[in-house]
Design a protein that fits this description.
A hairpin with a 5-residue loop joins strand 15 and strand 16. With 413 residues, the chain is α+β, with helices and mostly antiparallel strands. Helix 1 runs antiparallel to helix 5 and helix 1 packs across helix 11. The protein starts with 14 loop residues before the first helix and ends with a helix. It has 2 domains: 242 residues, 2-Layer Sandwich (BirA Bifunctional Protein, domain 2); 87 residues, Anticodon-binding domain (Rossmann fold, 3-Layer(aba) Sandwich). It contains 15 helices and 16 strands. Helices cover 39% and strands 21% of the residues. The longest helix is centred in the first third of the chain and has 20 residues.
Length: 413
């Protein structure tokens, strides 16, 4: 009989790995709370139309990577490939959120994309996500990048990352640049890959981030977005740069950093590293002031970012070890019964307790050492008669007699 295996592109988070997983999530959650972000969750699947409109039908995610299926009611549903579209949908669906602008959201959970599995990239993966809705000012851009930098710093990653920054301008600047860029690519169409030729009429900006070597050669001489920004866009970008400098967050301007869809505006950014093989994005995001209106909601500014938890786990410092437990060693039937209540009382007092279900004293003490326990609480018939326990320090081997009503204080001390 063959062994059962996880589906390709998925993997089990076993206890040791899950400890690192929760370390990333809890660190991000703690930093987000300091900035006033509130946590929410959206459904794992949504109507397919949401992601087609919210991510873009010309993107690889929508055209090649989504897990889409028809349910029994013949509705087309898709497992969520990212958070932003779902959070924007939740904003439109739940009218009370519109009364809470600016709305500052933190989220964490699983995503699904049919990709070629590789190191740091799975078909079921997990993201942390930050979104700010209803704040068109550059201060929001500075804040969300600051949140990201502080999370990376707490995880011990920031000094191995570079913040790449670019401006996509306002809609007027973007339209002007798109026209210039299309003319440039039409003049070099014979050198473009087939994918880029297909994108030329629908979405020429997406050619800028092509990984094809021939496309890269064409892109090296492409017109720069920065040369086609109007004064309002230049002022906005300057304010973001000045704010990051004031916050002590270094950055590099990267003219090739783009977002292909028309509802993206102004700031685009990524924290990248070379410490996971080839240069990889640790987290990235940007401003999407046109997205909520595109989805049918009221015109509402938005900016956010997402970071892959699996990638962050590969780079993050080791989480603090769990508190060393106390082991209860009961000797005899009466002591076994007493140990159950004693263990619960200690746990309710915040003391981690491990308790074996069988074995003599030697076996239980061996397990205590294997667990890295700090102390053993030994009770037998004699101790029960006197209302005491023997507390053995497993580091020094010192053993003291403690009354049961003082046991919590003794172990906490």
């Amino acid at each position: 009989m063959s062994k059962l295996q996880p589906v390709r592109g998925t993997h089990d988070l076993l206890p040791d790995e899950y400890k690192r997983f929760t370390h990333v999530v809890e660190t991000a959650r703690d930093v987000a709370r300091l900035y006033g972000y509130r946590e929410m969750a959206t459904p794992i699947f949504e109507f397919t139309e949401l992601f087609a409109r919210g991510i873009g039908e010309t993107t690889d995610v929508v055209s090649k990577e989504m897990y889409t299926f028809n349910d029994r009611g013949n509705e087309s549903l898709t497992l969520r490939p990212e958070y932003t579209a779902g959070i924007c949908r939740a904003f439109i669906s739940n009218g009370e959120l519109a009364q809470q602008l600016p709305l500052k959201i933190f989220a964490a959970g699983p995503m699904f994309r049919y990709e070629r599995p590789q190191k740091g990239r799975q078909r079921q993966f997990h993201q942390i996500d930050i979104e700010v809705l209803g704040a068109p000012e550059p201060g929001a851009d500075i804040e969300v990048i600051s949140v990201a930098a502080d999370i990376l710093e707490r995880l011990g990653i920031l000094d191995r990352c570079v913040l790449k920054l670019n401006s996509l301008g306002d809609p007027q600047s973007r339209q002007a640049y798109r026209s210039v860029l299309r003319d440039y690519y039409l003049a070099h169409e014979g050198q473009l890959s087939e994918d880029s030729k297909n994108r030329l009429q629908r979405n020429p900006l997406r050619i800028l981030d092509s990984k094809d070597e021939g496309d890269k050669a064409v892109n090296a001489e492409a017109p720069s977005f920065g040369d086609h920004l109007n004064s309002e866009s230049r002022d906005f970008f300057a304010a973001v740069q000045e704010g990051l400098a004031a916050a002590g967050i270094p950055f590099e301007i990267d003219p090739a950093l783009v977002r292909g869809l028309d509802y993206y505006t102004h700031t685009a950014f990524e924290f990248v590293t070379t410490h996971i093989g080839a240069q990889g994005t640790v987290l990235g995001g940007g401003r999407y002031d046109g997205l909520i209106a595109e989805l049918g909601g009221p015109p509402t500014a938005g900016i956010g970012w997402a970071g892959g938890i699996e990638r962050l786990m590969m780079l993050a410092n080791e989480p603090a070890p769990l508190p060393r437990p106390v082991v209860i060693v009961p000797l005899g039937t009466a002591a076994e019964a007493k140990a159950l209540g004693l263990a619960r009382a200690l746990r309710r007092a915040g003391i981690a307790v491990e308790q074996d279900y069988r074995g003599n004293m030697k076996r239980r003490m061996q397990r205590a050492n294997k667990l890295g326990a700090r102390a053993a609480v030994i009770i037998g018939d004699d101790e029960l008669a006197k209302g005491v326990a023997q507390v053995k320090d497993l580091d020094s081997s010192a053993q003291t007699e403690v009354t049961l009503d003082r046991l919590v204080d003794a172990l906490k001390g």
